[in-house]
Design goal:
Layout: H1 6-15, E1 20-23, E2 28-29, H2 30-45, E3 53-57, H3 64-74, E4 78-82, H4 88-98, E5 102-105, H5 110-116, E6 122-125, H6 126-129, H7 136-145, E7 151-157, E8 165-170, H8 171-185, E9 192-195, H9 209-214, E10 217-220, H10 223-227, H11 229-239, E11 243-245, H12 248-256, E12 270-274, H13 280-289, E13 294-301, E14 305-311, E15 326-327, E16 332-336, E17 349-354, E18 361-362, H14 366-372, E19 373-374, E20 385-394, E21 400-405, E22 409-412, E23 415-418, H15 419-427, E24 432-440, E25 445-452, H16 456-464, E26 475-479, H17 492-501
Parallel strand pairs: 1-10, 3-4, 3-5, 5-6, 9-10, 9-11, 11-12, 12-13, 25-26
Antiparallel strand pairs: 1-2, 7-8, 8-18, 13-14, 14-15, 16-17, 17-20, 19-20, 20-21, 22-23, 24-25
Length: about 500
Amino acid sequence: MKRSVLDYLENTAKRCPERMAWDAAAPFTFGQWWDAAQRIASSLSSRCARNTPVAVLMNPRSAECVKVFFGVWAAGCFYAPLDPMLPPERLKLIMQNLQPTAIVYDEESRAKAEAVCPDGCGCVLWSDAAQSPVDADKLAQIRQTVTPDHLAAILYTSGSTGIPKGVAHTQGSLMAYTEETIERYQFTENTVFGNQSPFFYANSIIDIFPPALLGAKACMIPATALSFPKTLVNYLRQKGITELTMTPSSFVQVANSGVLTENCLPELEYMIMSGEVMPWAQLAVWMNAAPKGHAWNFYGSTEMFSVSVGKVEGNYEAGQLIPVGKPFPTVKIRFMTDDGAEAAPGEAGEMYVSSPMVSQAYYRDEERSRAVYVADPLGQEPGVWFRSGDYGFLDAQGQLNVLGRKDSMVKHHGYRMELGEVEAALRSIPGCLEACCLLDKEQDVLWAFAAGNLTEKALVDALKTKLARYMLPDKIVLLPELPHTANMKIDRQTLRKRMTEQGDVC
């Protein structure tokens, strides 16, 4: 019986110790991965009480992080991966919430680790810890105490108040996600994972745990490759990468660069995306480049991991809502109307989700936890349900359709509407690469930001044929490109500032 995700790596290391685990700046095998984790655990176990948090402040694009993560677990603790590029004041806010017993850092982050280290917290250089002698007896005793209910990771995400939220995942939720993901995608030991997501993002989970269980290789895509589409494509081809998870914006950026040619990525099988709509025209460019490839669309969040996933099959019309597949077998969803009733079949409602993959709370934050980690809204089943804040419905084929955030449902000119519908209409217009809509609620002014080879008149004329009158933008701003966040999602906050700079209050 599996007690923790440590079992994945230990079993794989015993089965195939010489097999390459991570192809990175300093490659290492599964045997080396397990040995480093044991050494780091022996170092931490002498410093940290069991079931306490350990902050990991290292280059999030370094594969050495995964040695530390498993070392933290082997020490009987749980980890919080932090971005060393965050300002010191924000890191201090996180430290106040986390209250770690140790900070594990790399040489690049030494100064920042020392600057934000709370009183009573020790700082540990990961490479020193990795040279520690292994206390096998002590680690074996610790392993026997770990259960699926023990905390495994605290993943910090932005909060509406500006205070970060620490999403608390257990060993059990990580194991459930790993096994459900492998089953749905049909990953094997021959899958070659291409990691591009920094390790403090939940999306990186797919590149850590399925490979550890399967004995599959993961490749750390260099930062330079992520900045230059041609370099990225060359890297994917050179390494024979078969799985790539990116935001739709990143896929679009590469497709629009002109570097993808017919059959140029013969090994790529999985093109996995989430969070935004992928325009069909750009997706077709990727499909042409990867003859064995399938596009996969999934729905999830840091709190839930993946709720559902499915292949994008068929040729969807421009602007059409693309389903996100059927929910995983362990996932239960309630669709609730605004008046607290269960939505009728096929009717949209706010999604409440229950699953072994779902986190149970925000770490040391009861107030915000109470708002979204709730009881079954129908009062029929025990356990915690996550109130997602997203609207969706199941179609006649049992596929989940996600309409967007509850807070993106707005009233404009007295009519209720979904901003995502306007954005989809904009993206369907030839020449439009990206679009974002924002409502100035005080002025009741609907703004549309768009990038591409466009004119305002062409946009307006096209939208009049696609949208109801009350859904038409009041102001249109054309930009060379839309701003993006660090994880390549459209940066809506920056666009709101742009509205303010142009003399309008949002």
